[in-house]
Amino acid sequence: MHLPPNDTSGSELSPREIEILITIERTGAGFSMVAITLTLLSFLLFKRLRTTPNIFIVLASIANAGASIASMIGYDGLDKGEESTLCQGQGFIFEWFMQSDPWWSFAMAFNVFLVFFNNANPAVFRKRIWIYCIICFGGPLVPAIVLVSIHDDAKGPVFGNAAVWCPYPTDRP
């Protein structure tokens, strides 16, 4: 990792502080990926774990994996330049999966509500998993596509320098 020699991002972080943040972020993302891998392996290897609630956990884990991958990219996106494919891809992945993960949490909480307060049958959730996927993955995908598609000649792309990764820079409205 190296910082641009004339960094005009407005970041008040020193190169050392940015390096520390990147290390912390990548370490956390690495631990998260280990947990996701164990979750997926357990689900695939043990048939008894393939319950309806665990399907939702696996799908939420996929969203978490996307966010972790974007976190692992760290400063590399900015290092390649704000208009680089890596930076724009990182911003896109963050926008999509960071928003998708809480939607899966909401879906699980909603299912619990339906089971406990409306006597819903959890087997119905499994049959309608495609609806959950459209809402929880597709919903956040729309703004991610819109934002990665916006490019203003004067201001550049929407995704840009936010000190350590490539979501919205502070000078964007």
Keywords summarizing the entry:
2% strand; mainly alpha; receptor; 173 residues; Cyclic AMP receptor-like protein A; Rhopdopsin 7-helix transmembrane proteins
**Global Rg:** 19 Å
Question: What's the helix count?
Answer: 6
The main sheet comes to: 2 strands, antiparallel
Q: If you consult CATH, what is the topology?
A: Rhopdopsin 7-helix transmembrane proteins
**Which stretches are low in confidence, meaning pLDDT under 50 for 5 or more residues running?**
none
With strands numbered from the N-terminus, the spatial order across the biggest sheet is 1-2
Instruction: Write down the CATH class.
Output: Mainly Alpha
CATH architecture: Up-down Bundle
The CATH homologous superfamily: Rhodopsin 7-helix transmembrane proteins
Helix share of residues?
55-70%
N-to-C SSE string, H for helix and E for strand: HHHHHHEE
Domain G-protein coupled receptors family 2 profile: 21-173
GO molecular function, one term: G protein-coupled receptor activity
Main location: membrane
Pfam family, one: 7tm_2
